Amino acid sequence: MYEQLTAPEVSFPQALFKLCLSMVLGASIGFERKRKGQPAGLRTFSLIALGSTLAMLVSIYVCQEYVGLKNGDPGRIAAQVITGVGFLGAGAIIQMKGSVRGLTTAAGIWMASIIGLAVGVGMYVVSIFATLLILFILVQLENIEHKHAVGSESRIIRLKIGEICTDMSAYDRVLRHHGVTLVKTYVDYDYTERVTRMNLVVLLKETTDYMTLFEDLSSLGPTESITLSNQLS
User: Around 223, how many Cα atoms within 13 Å sit in the side-chain half-sphere?
Assistant: First the structure.
């Protein structure tokens, strides 16, 4: 049985084993993504890995049956799989003003297709090990990022102040006190209603205490509302 599963020629038992293995590996990655609330989950990743394996099997089978493995090029269909899966990855990316979401899921989709191809050519141990590494990256490295507050997130703090505010230095001091970096300020003065609307583009850490930050910002003037957003208003 082992010889059949590792043979370079495609056989029926070997094809069934490869398809099942790629489905399980793809579902493992998809489960983690679905747990994080991403739209691409178990079914999406399973189908991607399964389809890539089937494409690889078809590519090998065509060379095996018609031109011979030594004369054919089994990598031609595989190359098209890598190119084509980019459209799925692009569909998983959601872009808004000020933020981009879905990059990790898109990278996971691309990796799932590569794992499917690896299973298709019989690299079973490498495929399983690669899946474990992907799960380590998605789970453990994220925990490390949260624990050590690595990196910052771009957000927009929107304030509506019940007066014409011309001095922004006090707001900058409060932000710096909370470890928030002010990147850019957009101001809209409404002299008829005597209202100032501010959009503060900032870099926030995951450990930022939003409630205390908003309370300190609201104490600087007659603040009517404070909103944390991903895009400018």
Answer: 16
Chunked mean pLDDT (size 10), the chain, 233 residues: 71 88 92 79 88 88 72 73 79 62 83 90 90 88 67 83 89 90 90 91 82 91 87 56
Q: Please count the helices (runs of H) and the strands (runs of E) in the chain.
A: 8, 6
Among 29, 59, 35, 60, CA closest to 47: 29
Kindly list the distances between the CA atom of residue 49 and the CA atoms of 94, 117, 126, 159, 178, in Å, as whole numbers in the listed order: 22, 8, 14, 47, 45
Residue-level length of the chain: 233
Radius of gyration, CA atoms only, the chain: 26
- In degrees rounded to 5, what are phi and psi of residue 169? -65, -35
Q: Give 69's contacts (C-beta < 8 A, 6+ positions apart).
A: 8, 9, 60, 63
How is residue 51 written in tokens?
Answer: 């389809």
pLDDT in the model for residue 139: 83
pLDDT digits (tens, 9 = 90+) for 147-198: 655 566 778 999 999 999 888 889 999 999 988 888 889 999 999 889 999 9
Token couple for 4: 């059949």
Q: How confident is the model at residue 94, as a pLDDT?
A: 67
CA distance 146 to 141: 9
**Residue 101 identity (one-letter amino acid):** R
